[in-house]
Amino acid sequence: MKTIPIIVDCDPGIDDTIALLTAFVSPELDILGITPVCGNQPLGRTVLNALQVCELGGRPDIPVYPGCFRPMLREPIHGQFHGKTGLGNTTLPDPVKTAEEMSAVDFLIEALSLASAKGEPVTLCCLGPMTNLAVALRIKPQIADGIGRVVMMGGAYREPGNRTMTSEFNVLADPHAAHVVFSSGIPIVALALDATHQVMLKPEHVTAFSRVGGRISHALGELMAFWDRNDVARYGSRGGPLHDPLVIAYILAPHLFGTTRARIFVEYESELCMGQTIADWYGKSGLEPNAEIVTRVDAQGVIDFFLDRLSRYAEKVPA
Ligand code: RIB
Ligand code: CA
User: Fold this and answer.
1) Which atom in ligand 1 lies closest to the alpha carbon of residue 14?
2) Cβ(67) – ligand 1 distance below 6 Å
3) Most buried of 26, 67, 279, 312, CB within 10 angstroms?
4) What are the strands, taking DSSP E only, across 256-311?
């Protein structure tokens, strides 16, 4: 089977963890590396969490490259729904695995330059603030030729923000990085709150996931239960929106999603609307579309997809 080369840029993070665990057990994906960044948690913690999740998922083989320890310009902000450590109240063993000496930025430059030379473009899965990719692009813009597409969780187009009135956390945390990526010419698939709020991980789903079997069952059930916002007025139901995992689902099951092409922009100067993402749906900017914005999601299909994938741990990575 021809595999899809990916790099997972992330800030674990409970939903980042679900995305990683799904990717680990999907043979269609060739995970070249994981590049944690300052986001939900400070960098030291997102690196540690990534190492622990690699071991939880039975994938200590995947290299973890420490990324940027703060956004390009703004002061760091951190996640509010991931608990003190970024992994809810789940305690994972201290990892035997260690992070690579090479930085995430150097790894991105090396790996994407090679991908360009070989004509085998990589899919960049961006699950957190896009600082690592933006800095790499600023050092060597030609690496864009080694990126087939950026599939990113971030932004809010017709939805209000989740961290401020206008802005979603990943883009708000580093709007300058988002601007570098949005203006790079690299094709973007944008899984914004418009998409992720269509898929709520409800308590009944959590019960099903906690029974998938294998070594991840207990931790997965704990992490997913912690993710419940319990805010029916805001989300229309119990549960938490499945943000980052939709990036992996989109790559592996694109038939579950519908998109609309548009040019996307980000506000990085206004304090009131800092990090707001704007879609030019009707060509008013005169600029060519640069993104497929996911506007439709088969929510039940996505839940079924994750149940199928994560159930594979029962035989592949037994307890
Ligand atoms: O707004 C949702 C995003 O912010 C997700 O990536 C979540 O992990 C947090 O980083
Ligand atoms: Ca994230």
Assistant:
1) 8
2) no
3) 67
4) 257-266, 277-280, 291-297
- The residue whose two tokens read 């109240």 is 89
Q: Which amino acid is at 204?
A: E
Amino acid 33: pLDDT? 99
Structure-block tokens of residue 272 = 């009131």
The CATH classification of domain 4-314, taken from the options 3.40.50.1470, 3.40.50.410, 3.40.640.10, 3.90.245.10: 3.90.245.10
Q: From the CB of 222, is ligand 1 less than 6 Å away?
A: no
User: Annotated catalytic, 243?
Assistant: yes
Residue-range domain boundaries for the chain: 4-314
User: pLDDT (tens digit, 9 = 90+) per residue, 154-170?
Assistant: 999 999 999 999 999 99
Q: Is the CB of 267 under 6 A from ligand 1?
A: no
For residue range 111-159, list pLDDT tens digits in order. Answer: 999 999 999 999 999 999 999 999 999 999 999 999 999 999 999 999 9
Number of other residues whose CB lies within 10 A of the CB of residue 130: 32
3-class SS of residue 234 = helix
d(CA 127, CA 79): 13
pTM: 0.98
What's at 192, amino acid-wise?
A: A
Atom of ligand 1 nearest to the CA of 196: 2
Ligand minimally distant from the alpha carbon of residue 10: 2
Q: Which ligand is nearest to the CA of 162?
A: 1
CA distance 199 to 277: 21
**How far away, in angstroms, is 8 Cα from ligand 1 center?**
14
Question: Using one digit for the tens of pLDDT, what is the confidence trace for 282-308?
Answer: 999 999 999 999 999 999 999 999 999
